[in-house]
Amino acid sequence: MSYRSSVEILTEWDIVAARQLGRNEAKEVGFGTVDQARITTAISELARNIYLYAGKGKIEIERISEGGKFGIIIIASDEGPGIPDVRKVMEDGFSTSGGLGAGMPGVKRLMDDFKIETVLGEGTVIKATKWIR
Amino acid sequence: MSYRSSVEILTEWDIVAARQLGRNEAKEVGFGTVDQARITTAISELARNIYLYAGKGKIEIERISEGGKFGIIIIASDEGPGIPDVRKVMEDGFSTSGGLGAGMPGVKRLMDDFKIETVLGEGTVIKATKWIR
Amino acid sequence: MPQEIGRQYKEILRQYVMRQTEQNLYAGQNFSRQLIQKNIAPEDVISIHKVALEEMYPELPMNVWHSFDLLIEMMIRYGLAHAEHQSLIQQQEEMKVEMDLAANVQKTLLKTTVPELSGLEIGLVSVPARKMNGDYIYFLSDNYHNAGVAVADVIGKGIPAALCMSMIKYGMDSLQDATSDPKKVLDIINRIVEKSVNDDMFISMFYGRYNVENSIFTYASAGHEPALFFDAKKGEFSELHAKGLLLGVVPNVTYVQHEVKMETGDFVVMMTDGVTECRTEDGFIEQEIIAELIHSLHEESAQTIVDSVFKELEKMQNFELRDDFTLVIFKKTS
Amino acid sequence: MPQEIGRQYKEILRQYVMRQTEQNLYAGQNFSRQLIQKNIAPEDVISIHKVALEEMYPELPMNVWHSFDLLIEMMIRYGLAHAEHQSLIQQQEEMKVEMDLAANVQKTLLKTTVPELSGLEIGLVSVPARKMNGDYIYFLSDNYHNAGVAVADVIGKGIPAALCMSMIKYGMDSLQDATSDPKKVLDIINRIVEKSVNDDMFISMFYGRYNVENSIFTYASAGHEPALFFDAKKGEFSELHAKGLLLGVVPNVTYVQHEVKMETGDFVVMMTDGVTECRTEDGFIEQEIIAELIHSLHEESAQTIVDSVFKELEKMQNFELRDDFTLVIFKKTS
Ligand SMILES: [Mn+2]
Ligand SMILES: [Mn+2]
Ligand SMILES: [Mn+2]
Ligand SMILES: [Mn+2]
Fold first, then answer.
1. CA of C283: how far to CAs of C276, C277, C278, C287, in Å?
2. Residue C34's closest CA among A109, A93, D77, D47?
3. Which residue, A113, B107, C41, D221, could crosslink D242 as a Cys pair with Cβ 3.0–4.6 Å?
């Protein structure tokens, strides 16, 4: 099984802890400075979402490799209310993001692959993957 | 009358000369480094347009002041074919600019004020003004 | 550039240069968020950085400062693209408001009432891929013996399709008779479409009519997706084939109609190609999967079937509809 | 990041640090153009800069390199906005194609033929502020005695307005009679609009009919901009007032009609509020200026007058139309 580490998100400080974990992992896996910053930003967004909308949850980081390629998966999970309209959340809400490129579309852009699973009343699991180029 | 200096645009090298003139003037009038670079970029675009579409023309730089404010006017004039549809040229052609923000809308953004006068078969005069903030 | 920003950034920079912690980077990124919101261009950020660094380390060689001047020059066009983005966002916002309004106008213009006949259940779901729907459903009914439904799809999506749809509506309005034969309906609409639509616009339409007295479903098609017939006794699907030219190609077409006798529990599934051409990353969702899905739901009400099928297919496609999605079920309940 | 880019940038940087010429800055900015086209994010530019500087001046203190790491962090969100911009541009492009197509569909749907009657000149200009026109012109004519024109304006612009217009067209199509009284025309259209349009959509319409036999221009208005009547003998304008409720407010309205006798050289100017509410940075363009402008052109052909007025007003507004602009002139030539 692949190496996995995690941070519980309860307070805003945990966002920083999750970022730290993600940056360290990204560095060790071999990502360059800019990609480390991108992965960290994606974690920031996901952790912030948990903190704001689900109250609590966790960020896990998994190192992955496949056919000589190395990468990282961020898994953000919570037992919050779930997302009623996924299509809407994945739409670029340009005006709501105010050009910050934030939210789920932002995470999708920062990473290579993005999957979302959500059940109303049960929670949400988001998996975002990035490979070293 | 206010101080005015000019550069003829005939070859691509004249674009550099026009930029140089604009940057020097902007510096002397008191613009900061970033605004100097913006004014120079606006001149670049205007001179390039003359070079590409009118064949020849000139860029003049005029220093201006009004009620204690100081600024600069770029005057780009040519005796080219004129612009048949000004509305179209002033529209943001996002896809044609390829996100470079180039063309006349780009010049308008870089400067504070922008005026265009054009007569088919006679030529075009563009005046773009910027004030020190 | 307000001096306050420079002062704040210098403090963040001072902290970070002293201690390279995640918390200081987090502070930096949060600050950059504010800068974007305040419309500070990226070239300004470089300039702020340069000034802060100059104040902290005035002794650094001239070359370093020159290098920053080039970096500012490099950023100017990024700044322009950024400014362009701001105005594009505004345009996008205006467009969104306009499209919402247009979608509303479309809904009012194209509204149709689902007939209520005893012995017949009707289920309907029609979801546009974008704001405006290029699929169109129109019901005709005498509220007693006959229920007719037109399921149409403009080849194309969005606004142009929506404009075309408004034309079909006026054609259908002029019919006002639920007993009209399907072939005749297609005939009339074809003539209207041919007359007023661009040559490059085509519309496919399926027209079906159910008569509760003799339990016969009569149908004709103008180049439309075949309907599915579910035989409850056999527990099997068959396709309701019908040949016919798309609407608007030539002025005079004679459409042919077919009929099928329905027993209790049988139902007809009419749809647009947005249903049959659902696709995931791995390719099209196979027809059989859709048929199996409907099969597994066949004891449910007509509306439950269509709703469940939509939800399932939406999920399979990762919530990205590539085409307008319309599904209508006529189910004989007694 | 291709190494080639780093190598090229390092060369530009080396040149510039050596000699701070405009030509080197120009080279830098042209290079930044290429970077944007290659989808290089702004944070990548900082990183490229840092790497080049490190190679050139490895002896610089650690603090300088740390400072660049913070700068990269600061740029990440600018990079995100930049990436968002790229996809927004693509959406914008798709939207543009769609709008062009929609505008074309609209043109075909709403096409109308300018009547040709001896003794009457008709001039028409109708320019949408955006792609889709929310102003609508429809001519009715028996090509012998009567020429009728409906000038309508949906309160609102763009796509929702365009959808509404399609409805008016079907209403007008159902008339098919150029001898109909203006008040009756408004009556009929009002009923159609009231029935099928959202409560928050209103349409103003002016209907005028000219009879070449008796030279009488008869008109009625549903909350529309008054027309201008030019008396050639006196060389004076007067307004053709007509009261009447906007279309679509209540189902039954009785409109009133008025008439005016025309002499050779007289003309009627019908318009939408896009003409009368032209505005520059300094405020509205005064009515008198428009009247004077038309006056100065009164000896020209009807088409020349409307074209010239449009060009002049477009220029006064710095080529930014705020509303759809429609101007129709009926001029008695003999
Ligand atoms: Mn379609
Ligand atoms: Mn379709
Ligand atoms: Mn309007
Ligand atoms: Mn108007």
1. 12, 9, 9, 12
2. D77
3. D221
